[in-house]
Amino acid sequence: MNFGSRGWRGIYIYGIVAPLVGYLLWTGHGRARFSLYVFLTIDAFRAIRIFSPEALVLNIFIIGYMQTTKMKDIYPKINKEKVIIRMKGRREKIKKFADNTIRRITQTEGK
Question: Per the confidence metrics, is the pTM higher than 0.90?
Fold first, then answer.
């Protein structure tokens, strides 16, 4: 599907990102659907930029196919509640780390 630019951009997009998205879909990762949408949207813009109607139609068709009930059952949407819980946990870890760092710095300056 590489109708676009050759060189490092093509290698990055189709040699690294595309296999990663494929792996996420294959393993049924929670963010596989989102990753595919992002990848196909970028590829659709590339198809518009290089005037490739075949690639554009294919990207739009796949995005439309991902909207079917069958595909939504296989690759569900991202669970917002799980993401919020995970983000809160990370935020608490970062705050604890920052507090400990500030405490160490102030102790060092006080000596």
Answer: no
